[in-house]
Specification:
By secondary structure, the protein is of the alpha/beta class. The chain is built from 13 helices and 13 strands. α1 links the parallel β1 (about 5-10) and β2. Keywords: Glycosyltransferase, Transferase.
Length: about 400
């Protein structure tokens, strides 16, 4: 019988396409590929799941709020773990954020399992971020983060391992006051892993993608992929593209994603008279996004806020796309990474950078530690290690 892994995640990419959801599902699928029998417990959703040979089993919790924590979530997840029939065969119980908090009281019934929390942030880190915005609505909403810290305090110590998905999360976990409730010895960093086989530097579909979009094979194609939210800086991408267009007259900009800021962005494109050169493609699945990246030349992400290791940038790196990104991101500048202040973009320097890229061959440049295969190997090693 295959060793079992149980993953508790309130939402998956089938609810909405966020970074946490993508990371959770990719981990589940790849653990199944490695031979584990994986079960994912989540809330109900309507979207059809792609038919794959190695899909994990999914248990949908009905009649409770979708993609959210609720009294129903805590009650039903506890019932599932309490009545699990093959407790001795479970190697790991993985909590995506707080997803498995209510299962911890039954930990002793799983003698061979490591209980692991995948942390995407901390309550205190979120509270500080909200206060820094100086926006009344955000500050008032931080009350729930204080309650979140209380919940964290009740549960962190029972996990065998707490996985930080990046440096920013690890810093929060190892800073006061979170150090009062989470032992440093239990914290391990495993960075977000990108499926390097899905997002590869293969460009066999390049011409087909361009033909379908009505773009010539010689055009310089820029692209962005993110939620269309004001803080994501898509408006800055458009500003930059407008300047680039003055030099690269056949250039195109592909915008993937949807969100509350779309109307304003379309208005901006209209005012700049770029309607024929900026193409809004809407939300895309990751398979569709990987294919679109084959048809692009340069990836833009001029986010206005500090972010750690956003998946969209890692996916672009894995696909071999050179980057023009915000200085708010933690990546180091290099031959394929140009960083700048989104509020003061040095257009001449950007154009010089673009000119240097024309002769460079398309090659993936994602660090090994950010590949999915590396990430999954790190998780499986935790199944065998004893926390201090």
């Amino acid at each position: 019988m295959a060793e079992e892994v149980i993953i508790f995640a309130r939402s998956l990419p089938f609810h909405h396409l966020g970074g946490m959801e993508v990371v959770a599902w990719d981990l589940a699928v790849q653990l199944q590929v490695k031979g584990f029998k994986v079960t994912v417990v989540t809330t109900d959703f309507d979207e059809n799941i792609p038919v794959l040979e190695n899909n994990p089993q999914i248990i949908k919790l009905k009649n409770i709020p979708k993609a959210a924590y609720s009294a129903g979530w805590w009650t039903e997840t506890e019932k599932i773990i309490e009545t699990w029939g093959t407790k001795d065969n479970v190697s790991a119980v993985i909590s995506i954020s707080a997803g498995a908090f209510s299962t911890l009281k039954h930990k002793k019934s799983f003698p061979n399992a490591k209980f692991i929390m995948q942390a995407h942030g901390t309550s205190i880190g979120e509270l500080v971020s909200k206060i820094k915005t100086r926006k009344i609505k955000k500050i008032l909403s931080s009350v729930k983060n204080i309650f979140g810290f209380y919940l964290d305090a009740k549960h962190y110590s029972y996990f065998d391992w707490v996985v930080a998905v990046g440096d920013a999360v690890k810093k929060d976990l190892t800073s006061f006051p979170t150090t009062l409730i989470c032992s440093y010895d239990k914290i391990v960093k495993i960075e977000n892993g990108i499926d390097e086989y899905l997002f590869s530097d293969d460009i066999s579909q390049r011409n087909t993608v361009r033909e379908q979009l009505g773009i010539s094979s010689e055009a310089k194609v820029f692209m962005s992929a993110s939620r269309l939210h004001e803080q994501k800086g898509v408006d800055k991408n458009i500003d930059l593209f407008a300047e680039i267009k003055k030099v690269n007259v056949d250039a195109k900009l592909l915008i993937c994603g949807n969100g509350p800021y779309e109307k304003q962005l379309r208005k901006k494109v209209d005012e700049l008279k770029l309607n024929h050169d900026v193409i809004f493609l809407g939300a895309k699945t990751r398979t569709e996004l990987a294919r679109i990246m084959q048809g692009a030349d340069i990836f833009l992400f001029l986010t206005k806020r500090v972010e750690g290791l956003p998946l969209n940038v890692l996916e672009a790196m894995s696909s071999g796309l050179p980057l023009i990104i915000s200085e708010h991101l933690t990546f180091n500048s290099g031959d394929k990474i140009f960083k700048c202040n989104p509020s003061h973009i040095p257009f001449k320097d950007v154009q010089t950078y673009i000119n240097t890229l024309s002769s460079k061959e398309r090659r993936s440049f994602i660090p090994d530690k950010n590949t999915l295969s590396h990430s999954v190997s790190e998780y499986t090693s935790l199944f065998l290690r004893n926390s201090k």
